[in-house]
Amino acid sequence: MKALVLYDTVTGNTRKIAETIFETLKENTIETDFFKTDTETDIDFFDYDIVFIGSGVIDWLPTEKLMKRLRGKLKSYSKTGKVLPSAPVLPGKFGICFCTFSGPHIGVREALPMTMWLRCFFEHIGFTVLDELHYCAEFHNREEMNTRGRYGVIAGRPDHHDLEDVKGRVKGILNSLSAYL
Fold it and tell me: Running DSSP on this structure, what letter comes out for residue 127?
């Protein structure tokens, strides 16, 4: 099995989640590539069995850099015939969407459109989406936002407990994939 972790981050919150995913995959002897969105490497998602894509939530969506990269890849795949009408599911190709959101306003509902956007990318290229991971994260440069939101005090998040949850969820995903592999 070969895995990819692709992420974008503005403040470093999402990098913590991406690194934990990467480390957990490696601990489970999964060959894994790890890239930040602005890396110049041309990535072919079809080279991987399981792909994790994530970013911070910006205005309910992924970062502009990540969306631009994925739109470009979808356009390229369309031109080469890899994206087919009705988006048939490709056996053995799996995706997981992940994000960090600050949560001072309406909580996780702000993150749902973002992971749904990523989910649509995966489904257009025929990947089965196994999970969507949403993690509350510190709001940088606005300290009052870290204490007055629906999630209470979010300063320092994602914290040790969040990262342990990431490890557990990734291990669970890998366990569920054992039925397919």
Answer: P
- Please write the tens of the pLDDT for every residue from 59-90: 899 999 999 999 999 999 999 999 888 888 99
The domain segmentation of the chain, as residue ranges, is 2-177
Determine contact, residues 101/134, Cβ cutoff 8 Å. Answer: yes
**pLDDT tens digits, 113-124:** 999 999 999 999
Residue environment code for 31-56, b if the CB has 16+ CB neighbours within 10 A, otherwise e? ebbbbbbeeeeebebeebbbbbbbbb
If you write DSSP's letter for every residue of 50-100 in order, what string do you get?
EEEEEEE-BTTB--HHHHHHHHHHHHHHHHTT-S-TT-PPPTT-EEEEEEE
**Residues 138 and 107 sit within 8 Å (Cβ to Cβ):** no
Are residues 52 and 122 in contact, defined by beta-carbon separation less than 8 angstroms?
A: no
Cα distance between residue 135 and residue 121, in whole Å: 20
CA 96 → CA 2, 124, 154, 155, distances in Å?
14, 14, 24, 26
Beta-carbon-side half-sphere exposure of residue 4 (alpha carbons within 13 Å): 21
105-148 per-position pLDDT tens digit: 677 888 999 999 999 999 999 999 999 999 988 877 666 666 76
The domain made up of 2-177 is a member of CATH 1.10.3720.10: no
